[in-house]
Design a protein that fits this description.
This protein is mainly β and 304 residues long. 9% of the residues lie in helices and 49% in strands.
Length: 304
Protein backbone atom coordinates (compact mmCIF):
# COMPACT_ATOMS: atom_id res chain seq x y z
CA UNK A 1 0.00 0.00 0.00
CA UNK A 2 1.39 3.40 -1.00
CA UNK A 3 2.18 6.05 1.60
CA UNK A 4 -0.63 8.37 0.42
CA UNK A 5 -3.12 5.51 0.62
CA UNK A 6 -1.98 4.74 4.17
CA UNK A 7 -2.43 8.39 5.19
CA UNK A 8 -5.87 8.44 3.58
CA UNK A 9 -6.85 5.29 5.50
CA UNK A 10 -5.62 6.73 8.81
CA UNK A 11 -7.54 9.94 8.18
CA UNK A 12 -10.75 8.04 7.40
CA UNK A 13 -10.41 6.09 10.66
CA UNK A 14 -9.58 8.92 13.05
CA UNK A 15 -11.12 11.84 11.16
CA UNK A 16 -14.13 10.39 9.29
CA UNK A 17 -16.38 12.63 7.23
CA UNK A 18 -19.27 14.25 9.06
CA UNK A 19 -22.77 15.07 7.88
CA UNK A 20 -25.65 17.09 9.27
CA UNK A 21 -29.28 17.74 8.30
CA UNK A 22 -30.94 21.01 7.35
CA UNK A 23 -34.59 22.02 6.95
CA UNK A 24 -36.69 24.88 5.65
CA UNK A 25 -40.39 25.60 6.04
CA UNK A 26 -41.27 27.24 2.75
CA UNK A 27 -44.23 28.69 0.93
CA UNK A 28 -46.21 27.45 -2.05
CA UNK A 29 -43.92 27.32 -5.06
CA UNK A 30 -40.71 27.06 -3.05
CA UNK A 31 -38.48 24.22 -4.16
CA UNK A 32 -34.81 23.37 -4.35
CA UNK A 33 -35.57 22.19 -7.87
CA UNK A 34 -36.78 25.64 -8.96
CA UNK A 35 -34.21 27.57 -6.94
CA UNK A 36 -36.97 29.42 -5.09
CA UNK A 37 -37.23 29.59 -1.32
CA UNK A 38 -35.72 30.97 1.85
CA UNK A 39 -32.62 29.73 3.66
CA UNK A 40 -32.23 26.23 5.12
CA UNK A 41 -31.69 26.00 8.88
CA UNK A 42 -28.91 23.61 9.86
CA UNK A 43 -29.90 21.23 12.66
CA UNK A 44 -27.17 20.61 15.24
CA UNK A 45 -25.61 17.21 15.73
CA UNK A 46 -24.72 15.91 19.17
CA UNK A 47 -21.19 15.22 20.35
CA UNK A 48 -21.71 11.48 19.97
CA UNK A 49 -23.88 11.37 16.82
CA UNK A 50 -23.87 13.04 13.45
CA UNK A 51 -26.85 12.76 11.08
CA UNK A 52 -27.60 12.24 7.37
CA UNK A 53 -30.21 10.85 4.93
CA UNK A 54 -33.20 12.86 6.24
CA UNK A 55 -36.83 11.94 5.49
CA UNK A 56 -39.77 14.02 6.73
CA UNK A 57 -43.35 12.98 7.49
CA UNK A 58 -46.37 14.77 8.92
CA UNK A 59 -48.43 13.03 11.58
CA UNK A 60 -51.21 14.56 13.72
CA UNK A 61 -50.27 18.04 12.55
CA UNK A 62 -46.61 17.66 13.52
CA UNK A 63 -43.52 17.10 11.38
CA UNK A 64 -41.01 14.37 12.20
CA UNK A 65 -37.54 13.95 10.76
CA UNK A 66 -36.14 10.43 10.33
CA UNK A 67 -32.44 10.01 9.56
CA UNK A 68 -29.25 8.02 9.89
CA UNK A 69 -27.68 8.64 13.30
CA UNK A 70 -24.01 7.74 13.06
CA UNK A 71 -22.62 6.59 16.41
CA UNK A 72 -18.98 7.66 16.75
CA UNK A 73 -18.38 5.09 19.50
CA UNK A 74 -19.99 2.07 17.83
CA UNK A 75 -18.83 3.33 14.43
CA UNK A 76 -22.02 2.44 12.63
CA UNK A 77 -25.29 4.03 11.59
CA UNK A 78 -28.45 3.73 13.66
CA UNK A 79 -31.91 5.04 12.77
CA UNK A 80 -33.05 8.19 14.54
CA UNK A 81 -35.93 10.62 14.78
CA UNK A 82 -36.67 14.11 16.08
CA UNK A 83 -39.63 16.46 15.88
CA UNK A 84 -39.15 19.66 13.88
CA UNK A 85 -41.16 22.86 13.58
CA UNK A 86 -40.70 26.44 12.42
CA UNK A 87 -39.99 27.44 16.02
CA UNK A 88 -37.41 24.77 16.81
CA UNK A 89 -36.54 21.09 16.98
CA UNK A 90 -36.76 18.22 19.44
CA UNK A 91 -34.14 15.92 20.88
CA UNK A 92 -32.59 13.23 18.67
CA UNK A 93 -33.78 9.77 19.65
CA UNK A 94 -32.57 6.36 18.49
CA UNK A 95 -35.51 4.39 17.10
CA UNK A 96 -33.82 1.25 15.77
CA UNK A 97 -30.43 -0.43 15.87
CA UNK A 98 -29.15 -3.65 14.30
CA UNK A 99 -25.87 -5.52 14.48
CA UNK A 100 -24.69 -3.86 11.27
CA UNK A 101 -24.72 -0.38 9.80
CA UNK A 102 -28.07 1.20 8.88
CA UNK A 103 -28.86 4.38 6.96
CA UNK A 104 -31.34 5.91 4.46
CA UNK A 105 -34.54 5.21 6.49
CA UNK A 106 -37.05 5.21 3.63
CA UNK A 107 -40.33 5.77 5.47
CA UNK A 108 -43.80 5.38 4.01
CA UNK A 109 -47.37 4.81 5.13
CA UNK A 110 -49.61 2.04 3.77
CA UNK A 111 -53.09 1.09 4.95
CA UNK A 112 -52.65 3.37 7.95
CA UNK A 113 -49.36 1.79 9.07
CA UNK A 114 -45.88 3.31 8.88
CA UNK A 115 -42.99 1.25 7.53
CA UNK A 116 -39.27 1.88 7.09
CA UNK A 117 -37.05 0.11 4.58
CA UNK A 118 -33.50 1.11 5.61
CA UNK A 119 -30.26 0.74 3.70
CA UNK A 120 -28.82 -2.42 5.25
CA UNK A 121 -26.42 -3.86 2.68
CA UNK A 122 -23.82 -4.83 5.32
CA UNK A 123 -26.25 -7.51 6.53
CA UNK A 124 -26.75 -8.66 2.92
CA UNK A 125 -30.50 -8.31 3.15
CA UNK A 126 -33.18 -5.75 2.45
CA UNK A 127 -35.72 -5.73 5.26
CA UNK A 128 -38.76 -3.80 6.41
CA UNK A 129 -39.56 -2.31 9.81
CA UNK A 130 -43.12 -1.88 11.06
CA UNK A 131 -44.07 0.96 13.38
CA UNK A 132 -45.44 -0.28 16.70
CA UNK A 133 -45.74 3.08 18.46
CA UNK A 134 -45.14 6.20 16.37
CA UNK A 135 -42.57 7.62 16.12
CA UNK A 136 -40.15 5.81 18.44
CA UNK A 137 -40.94 2.09 18.49
CA UNK A 138 -40.24 -0.13 15.45
CA UNK A 139 -39.83 -3.85 14.92
CA UNK A 140 -38.32 -5.88 12.11
CA UNK A 141 -41.24 -7.39 10.25
CA UNK A 142 -39.99 -8.97 7.05
CA UNK A 143 -36.91 -9.65 4.92
CA UNK A 144 -37.79 -8.52 1.41
CA UNK A 145 -34.67 -9.65 -0.45
CA UNK A 146 -31.41 -11.36 0.38
CA UNK A 147 -29.35 -8.86 -1.59
CA UNK A 148 -26.68 -6.21 -0.99
CA UNK A 149 -28.63 -3.11 -2.03
CA UNK A 150 -28.18 0.58 -1.26
CA UNK A 151 -30.67 3.43 -0.84
CA UNK A 152 -33.76 1.52 -1.91
CA UNK A 153 -36.56 3.90 -2.86
CA UNK A 154 -40.17 2.72 -3.12
CA UNK A 155 -42.77 4.24 -5.41
CA UNK A 156 -46.31 3.08 -6.20
CA UNK A 157 -47.22 3.43 -9.87
CA UNK A 158 -50.40 2.11 -11.50
CA UNK A 159 -51.11 0.03 -8.39
CA UNK A 160 -47.68 -1.65 -8.29
CA UNK A 161 -44.99 -1.03 -5.68
CA UNK A 162 -41.63 -0.49 -7.38
CA UNK A 163 -38.27 -0.72 -5.62
CA UNK A 164 -35.65 1.48 -7.28
CA UNK A 165 -32.32 0.37 -5.89
CA UNK A 166 -28.71 -0.46 -6.64
CA UNK A 167 -26.68 -3.61 -6.20
CA UNK A 168 -23.41 -3.07 -4.37
CA UNK A 169 -20.33 -4.08 -6.32
CA UNK A 170 -17.09 -5.21 -4.74
CA UNK A 171 -15.37 -1.95 -5.66
CA UNK A 172 -18.28 0.21 -4.43
CA UNK A 173 -18.93 1.87 -7.78
CA UNK A 174 -22.46 3.25 -7.62
CA UNK A 175 -23.22 3.53 -11.31
CA UNK A 176 -26.39 1.50 -11.84
CA UNK A 177 -30.11 1.28 -11.12
CA UNK A 178 -31.68 -2.09 -10.36
CA UNK A 179 -35.46 -2.23 -10.50
CA UNK A 180 -37.71 -4.61 -8.55
CA UNK A 181 -41.47 -4.76 -8.09
CA UNK A 182 -44.04 -6.36 -5.84
CA UNK A 183 -46.03 -9.16 -7.48
CA UNK A 184 -48.56 -10.78 -5.13
CA UNK A 185 -46.38 -9.93 -2.11
CA UNK A 186 -43.28 -11.40 -3.76
CA UNK A 187 -40.47 -9.10 -4.89
CA UNK A 188 -39.64 -9.77 -8.53
CA UNK A 189 -36.72 -8.43 -10.54
CA UNK A 190 -36.97 -6.43 -13.74
CA UNK A 191 -35.50 -8.60 -16.53
CA UNK A 192 -33.70 -5.56 -17.99
CA UNK A 193 -31.54 -4.93 -14.86
CA UNK A 194 -29.55 -2.82 -14.61
CA UNK A 195 -32.13 -0.50 -16.14
CA UNK A 196 -29.63 2.37 -16.11
CA UNK A 197 -25.84 2.74 -16.01
CA UNK A 198 -24.57 6.20 -15.12
CA UNK A 199 -22.23 7.11 -12.29
CA UNK A 200 -23.45 10.71 -12.25
CA UNK A 201 -27.20 10.14 -11.91
CA UNK A 202 -27.96 6.57 -10.80
CA UNK A 203 -27.83 6.32 -6.99
CA UNK A 204 -31.09 7.30 -5.26
CA UNK A 205 -31.19 10.42 -3.07
CA UNK A 206 -34.76 10.53 -1.73
CA UNK A 207 -38.43 9.95 -2.47
CA UNK A 208 -39.95 10.51 -5.87
CA UNK A 209 -42.29 13.51 -6.02
CA UNK A 210 -44.44 15.40 -8.47
CA UNK A 211 -43.44 18.88 -9.62
CA UNK A 212 -45.03 20.99 -12.33
CA UNK A 213 -46.79 17.93 -13.77
CA UNK A 214 -43.59 15.86 -13.85
CA UNK A 215 -42.55 12.85 -11.80
CA UNK A 216 -39.15 13.67 -10.29
CA UNK A 217 -36.53 11.28 -8.90
CA UNK A 218 -33.70 12.81 -6.84
CA UNK A 219 -30.33 11.13 -7.31
CA UNK A 220 -26.71 11.52 -6.21
CA UNK A 221 -23.79 12.66 -8.30
CA UNK A 222 -21.18 9.98 -7.57
CA UNK A 223 -19.01 10.80 -10.60
CA UNK A 224 -17.31 13.77 -8.96
CA UNK A 225 -16.94 12.19 -5.50
CA UNK A 226 -19.24 11.03 -2.72
CA UNK A 227 -21.77 13.77 -2.00
CA UNK A 228 -20.62 15.93 -4.91
CA UNK A 229 -24.16 17.04 -5.71
CA UNK A 230 -27.82 16.28 -6.26
CA UNK A 231 -29.66 15.60 -9.50
CA UNK A 232 -33.33 15.96 -10.29
CA UNK A 233 -34.44 13.51 -12.98
CA UNK A 234 -37.79 13.38 -14.75
CA UNK A 235 -39.10 9.81 -14.89
CA UNK A 236 -40.39 9.11 -18.39
CA UNK A 237 -41.21 5.39 -18.18
CA UNK A 238 -41.69 3.03 -15.25
CA UNK A 239 -43.01 -0.53 -15.56
CA UNK A 240 -42.11 -4.11 -14.67
CA UNK A 241 -39.90 -4.19 -17.78
CA UNK A 242 -38.65 -0.65 -18.35
CA UNK A 243 -37.27 2.44 -16.66
CA UNK A 244 -36.34 5.64 -18.42
CA UNK A 245 -35.58 9.13 -17.15
CA UNK A 246 -33.80 12.33 -18.13
CA UNK A 247 -31.72 14.76 -16.11
CA UNK A 248 -33.38 18.15 -15.76
CA UNK A 249 -31.46 19.92 -12.98
CA UNK A 250 -28.35 19.68 -10.80
CA UNK A 251 -27.68 21.18 -7.36
CA UNK A 252 -24.21 21.69 -5.87
CA UNK A 253 -23.38 22.31 -2.19
CA UNK A 254 -22.56 25.96 -2.93
CA UNK A 255 -26.05 26.46 -4.36
CA UNK A 256 -27.67 25.94 -0.95
CA UNK A 257 -28.71 29.06 0.97
CA UNK A 258 -28.14 28.54 4.70
CA UNK A 259 -28.90 30.39 7.92
CA UNK A 260 -25.20 30.89 8.68
CA UNK A 261 -21.87 30.93 6.89
CA UNK A 262 -19.97 27.66 6.88
CA UNK A 263 -18.00 25.54 4.46
CA UNK A 264 -20.10 22.55 3.44
CA UNK A 265 -18.52 20.25 0.89
CA UNK A 266 -21.25 17.78 0.00
CA UNK A 267 -24.97 17.08 -0.37
CA UNK A 268 -26.62 13.75 -1.21
CA UNK A 269 -30.23 13.58 0.05
CA UNK A 270 -33.38 15.60 -0.64
CA UNK A 271 -36.91 15.00 0.63
CA UNK A 272 -40.06 17.03 1.15
CA UNK A 273 -43.53 16.88 2.66
CA UNK A 274 -45.95 19.74 1.99
CA UNK A 275 -43.66 22.79 1.84
CA UNK A 276 -41.12 21.35 4.26
CA UNK A 277 -37.83 20.49 2.53
CA UNK A 278 -34.95 18.59 4.12
CA UNK A 279 -31.39 17.97 2.93
CA UNK A 280 -28.09 16.76 4.33
CA UNK A 281 -24.70 18.48 4.12
CA UNK A 282 -21.14 17.26 4.51
CA UNK A 283 -19.04 19.11 7.07
CA UNK A 284 -15.28 19.40 7.27
CA UNK A 285 -13.84 16.69 9.54
CA UNK A 286 -12.98 17.77 13.07
CA UNK A 287 -11.25 16.38 16.13
CA UNK A 288 -13.62 14.43 18.36
CA UNK A 289 -12.33 12.22 21.15
CA UNK A 290 -15.18 9.76 20.51
CA UNK A 291 -13.63 8.91 17.13
CA UNK A 292 -10.63 7.53 19.01
CA UNK A 293 -12.89 5.78 21.53
CA UNK A 294 -14.70 4.21 18.58
CA UNK A 295 -11.47 2.79 17.16
CA UNK A 296 -10.70 1.16 20.54
CA UNK A 297 -14.28 -0.15 20.78
CA UNK A 298 -14.05 -1.69 17.31
CA UNK A 299 -10.67 -3.33 18.03
CA UNK A 300 -12.01 -4.71 21.32
CA UNK A 301 -14.98 -6.31 19.53
CA UNK A 302 -12.67 -7.68 16.85
CA UNK A 303 -10.30 -9.46 19.24
CA UNK A 304 -12.59 -10.24 22.18
Amino acid sequence: MKFKQILKKIKSVFFPEIWCCAVRFGKDGDSLLSGKGSVFSVLPNSYRYWTADPFVVKENGKYYLFFEMFDRIKRKGLLGCREISESGFGKMRVIYESASHLSYPFIYKKDGVYYIVPESNKSEELFRLRCVDFPLKWEKEKVLLHEKLVDTTIFTHNGTDFYISQRVSGDNVFDRIDLFYDHNSVIEECPANPVKKDLKTARCAGKLFEYDGKLIRPSQNCADGYGAGLNFNEVLELSENTFKERLISMVLPEDIKLNFENHFTGIHTYNRTDNVEVIDLKIKSEINILNFVGVIFKLFKLFF
